[in-house]
């Protein structure tokens, strides 16, 4: 059985799948290879059933993906926006948000791939702008400082924080309701105080974001909605 192995200072072995269906095994540094293989083998039935369930979920997700045509619905901080596609005599695409609409202007010959790239670039720029502002605001509240903010397309997480104080965010979080986006930013900033998921960490998150359980639950139940294309 193929899997990606990550060794760290963790205490136990854990198995998980990423959004692409790849199997990941996280293991302590001291555990021997054959012990990891035995652990994976002991979970064979769970792995198989979970892989089937995730593949079914991905098929449903693909069926829901928008084609980026006129009238499609996209989200911006939870706001439902109607997409308007304008084909014009132009060399480059352009996106702007106007009164509940996302207007995508593209060259006449633009295909789905071109439109997808233009929308993603726009969401990435907006995510950097919006999240940078939120991070500065919440950092002052928490009395912490961070180094850099990077916008990525992470497959299995909405944000991360490095030991050097760098913050990474999935650009798709900009589609989520604003309180959910705020929670993700606060979550990563709290890692500048507690670089773990200890009880002290979650208490810090709760103090800064009292509704965090609701927002974390929203992501678990609706995170697939943030992958419309």
Distance between the termini: 30 Å
**Biggest sheet strand line-up:** 4-5-7-6
Broad structural category: alpha/beta
Query: What is the count of β-strands?
Result: 10
What helical percentage do the residues reach?
40-55%
Low-confidence stretches: none
**Oligomerization status of the protein chains:** single chain
Instruction: Specify the number of helices.
Output: 6
Mean pLDDT reading:
94
Shape: globular
How much of the polypeptide forms β-strand, as a percent range? 15-25%
Q: Write down the Rg.
A: 20 Å
Main sheet properties? 4 strands, mixed
N-to-C SSE string, H for helix and E for strand? EEEHHEEEEHEEEHHH
Record the SSE blueprint.
Blueprint: E1 4-8, E2 14-17, E3 23-28, H1 33-42, H2 44-64, E4 73-76, E5 79-88, E6 94-98, E7 101-107, H3 112-142, E8 149-152, E9 159-161, E10 167-170, H4 178-190, H5 199-208, H6 212-222
Parallel strand pairs: 1-3, 5-7, 8-10
Antiparallel strand pairs: 2-3, 4-5, 6-7, 9-10
Helix pairs in contact: 3-4, 4-5, 4-6
Protein architecture, described:
This protein is of the alpha/beta class. The mean pLDDT is 94. The chain has a 4-stranded mixed β-sheet, covered by helices on one side. Strand 4 and strand 5 (79-88) form a beta hairpin. 42% of the residues lie in helices and 23% in strands. It has helices at 33-42, 44-64, 112-142, 178-190, 199-208, 212-222; strands at residues 4-8, 14-17, 23-28, 73-76, 79-88, 94-98, 101-107, 149-152, 159-161, 167-170. It contains 6 helices and 10 strands, in the order βββααββββαβββααα. It is globular and about 60 Å long.
């Amino acid at each position: 059985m193929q899997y990606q192995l990550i060794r760290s200072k963790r205490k136990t072995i854990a198995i998980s799948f990423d959004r692409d269906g790849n199997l990941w095994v996280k293991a302590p540094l001291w555990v021997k290879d054959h012990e990891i293989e035995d652990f994976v083998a002991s979970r064979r039935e769970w792995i198989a059933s979970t892989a089937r369930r995730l593949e079914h979920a991905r098929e449903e997700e693909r069926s829901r993906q928008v084609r980026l045509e006129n009238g499609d619905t996209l989200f911006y901080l939870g706001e439902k926006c109607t997409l308007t596609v304008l084909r014009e005599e132009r060399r480059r695409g352009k996106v702007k948000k106007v009164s509940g609409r996302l207007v995508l202007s593209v060259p006449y010959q633009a295909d789905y791939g071109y439109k997808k790239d233009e929308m993603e670039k726009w969401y990435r720029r907006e995510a950097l702008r919006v999240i940078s502002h939120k991070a500065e605001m919440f950092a002052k509240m928490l009395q912490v400082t961070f180094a850099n903010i990077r916008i990525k397309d992470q497959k299995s997480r909405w944000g991360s924080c490095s030991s050097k104080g760098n913050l990474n965010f999935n650009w798709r979080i900009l589609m989520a309701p604003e309180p959910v986006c705020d929670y993700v930013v606060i979550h990563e900033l709290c890692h500048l105080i507690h670089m773990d998921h200890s009880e002290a960490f979650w208490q810090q998150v709760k103090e800064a974001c009292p509704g965090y359980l609701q927002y974390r639950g929203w992501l678990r139940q609706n995170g697939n909605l943030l992958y419309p294309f």
